[in-house]
Design goal:
With 555 residues, this protein is an alpha/beta fold. Helix content is 57%, strand content 8%.
Length: 555
């Protein structure tokens, strides 16, 4: 185990020193044009405008893989890739300038970037100096390194970011050349080119031992911007996997590809809490590191992450992901998404391994009752149940809990029927999607022959006593207290009419009587709308709610 090289290099010295590869397990290009790429550009402008001697661009950690005879960039992928993107922009502008002026200096610098920094490429030989991972490699090679114009717009998220970075830097640098004559354009472009390649410096550390490379990576990143837990975990897995490194890499890459757009740290924490003692995000890496200690641990863990990612994706986005054959399960998960419930996820991941869908349906139905009664109506913060849900999940995985055991565990924390009634009688819901959901579920029970449109975009929440007092004879304090009471809310569909939303009750009833929603049509039976009416109606709604979200039973 040894550090072969440690030195400071200009960005050009680093890029031309060897061929470099991004490991397949590394994330795709991730710099955003309005964030990191913009910062990159502003640093360069600051250096050029203020004639600064140098700019520290960050560190690069290289693993010189003796067996594969390749040098892998363990840390520094994003800044290296962005450097190549910027140089591709400079190459293009030198080419355009040569076409306009036939100035030999512009042609020479175009060729220097193309051959010396980028490297040659043809069907017979690949002498490119920088190679991205599988997801980005071909797009980056053709569009950036070879400069081939796009035939169509990219669709892969990382390819879009690469193009946006290129377009942003091209636009910014072109703006610097505007309104200059050809000689001034050339001089200004050379100023930015030389400033970047000669004054942007990186600290480069190279080792021939992967374990050493990851130790260096973690040490260098211990200060400054906090590493994502998922990145630290990945490094630990690869460092620990020894002779199983290739298999672990492949499993991690599978999981990463499937998890496109997801927060990997949140997923891994959810997965961990489905099998182990509850852990908060700040302690996740430590617990993982203390538990996963052998190559077989690493491989088993990454395989399990791949196996569970599909159900997790469905939990995160039930409207667009399909997973269960029984679509009622996915409808309930969508309901819970509307209620902003997520702390139950570990239970679903644990059940997914061992339970039949019929059993999962019974549990998820009970979880909906639990969340509605305890969190939506009783107002208890959902996070207080994280430990309960994680404990239930661990018992599923370790002790083979049955679905009856799960429901019994939930029942220990469930508000009683009496408590539910007391809380419901004064329940106020300010969230429009949540209020629509509660009323729609009650409506669907009342009029089972016709289901209310499940789309929150096509059903409207109506405040019977309106948001603006207008001609209503009610005191401001009373208005504020009762405005969002469930008893003062109803649903409107096609009969929705903005013009009546602030009208007095008698005028509103003219619209309500045409409603297809029984709950709303029934409002016409009231002669007036008062505090007493709201309270009475809320009690009537509870009579249905206690059936829709009942006390938990295992049979």
């Amino acid at each position: 185990m040894t550090i072969k090289k440690f030195n400071f290099y200009t960005i050009e010295q680093y890029l031309v020193s060897d061929k470099f590869y991004i490991p397949e397990y590394q994330r795709e290009y991730s710099w955003e044009k309005d964030a990191q790429v913009k910062d990159f550009w502003l640093d360069l402008v600051d250096l050029v405008e203020n004639n600064r001697e140098s700019h520290f661009f960050g560190q690069v950690v290289i693993h010189d893989d003796i067996e594969e005879k390749k040098k892998y960039v363990i840390d520094g992928q994003q800044r290296s890739s962005t450097s190549i993107i910027f140089l591709a922009v400079v190459r293009q502008l030198f080419d355009e300038l040569y076409t306009q002026t036939k100035k030999e200096g512009a042609l020479n610098k175009f060729e220097d970037i193309r051959l010396k920094i980028m490297g040659r490429w043809s069907e017979e030989e690949n002498e490119l100096r920088f190679h991205l991972g599988k997801i980005d490699n071909l797009f980056f090679r053709d569009f950036i390194q070879r400069g081939i114009p796009l035939v169509e717009e990219p669709t892969e998220a990382s390819h879009i970011r690469i193009k946006e970075a290129y377009d942003f830097l091209y636009e910014q640098l072109s703006f610097e050349l505007e309104n200059l004559d050809n000689t001034q354009k050339y001089e200004r472009l050379v100023e930015f080119y030389n400033g970047f390649k000669d004054k942007f410096n990186v600290m480069c550390v190279e080792t021939d031992d992967m374990n050493e490379a990851f130790i260096i990576f973690e040490t260098l990143n211990a200060r400054g911007k906090k590493l994502e837990t998922s990145d630290l975990l990945k490094n630990h897995l690869f460092r620990t996997s020894a002779n199983l490194i290739e298999e672990v890499k492949n499993e991690w890459l599978k999981m990463q590809e499937k998890a496109e757009g997801l927060d990997l740290t949140k997923y891994i924490r959810t997965f961990w809490n489905s099998r182990h003692d509850f852990v908060r995000e700040r302690d996740l890496y430590k617990n993982l590191k203390d538990t996963i200690k052998t190559p077989s641990d690493c491989l088993s863990f990454t395989k399990d992450l791949v196996e569970s990612i599909e159900i997790y994706k469905m939990l995160i986005d039930p409207e667009n992901e399909n997973y269960f054959n029984d679509k009622d399960i996915e409808i309930i998960i969508s309901n819970l998404k509307t209620l902003n419930a997520s702390t139950y996820y570990p239970i679903m991941l644990a059940m997914n391994v061992k339970f039949q869908e019929s059993e999962i349906k019974k549990v998820i139905t009970s979880i909906e009752s639990f969340i509605v009664r305890n969190c939506v109506i009783a107002g208890r913060v959902a996070n207080r149940y994280e430990m309960l849900f994680a404990k239930i999940a661990k018992n599923i995985f370790i002790n083979n809990s049955s679905y009856e055991d799960i429901i019994k565990s939930l029942k220990t924390e469930l508000v009683t029927d009496d408590e539910f009634e007391n809380y419901f009688s004064v329940a106020t819901i300010k969230s429009v999607p949540v209020a629509k959901f509660i009323l729609r579920r009650i409506c669907n029970y009342q009029q089972r022959e016709m289901i209310v449109n499940p789309s929150n975009m096509e059903i409207h929440l109506e405040h019977i006593m309106p948001k603006k007092i207008g001609d209503w004879k009610v005191h401001e304090d009373v208005h504020q207290k009762y405005l969002n009471r469930l008893g003062n809310l109803t649903l409107l569909a096609d009969e929705y009419n903005k013009s009546i939303k602030n009208k007095v009750f008698e005028k509103k009833k003219e619209v309500y009587k045409n409603s297809k929603i029984e709950m709303t049509k029934k409002l016409c039976s009231y002669r007036e709308w008062t505090i007493t009416t709201i309270e009475e109606r809320q009690k009537e709604l509870f009579d249905v709610a206690k059936v829709v979200w009942p006390d938990l039973k295992t049979t």
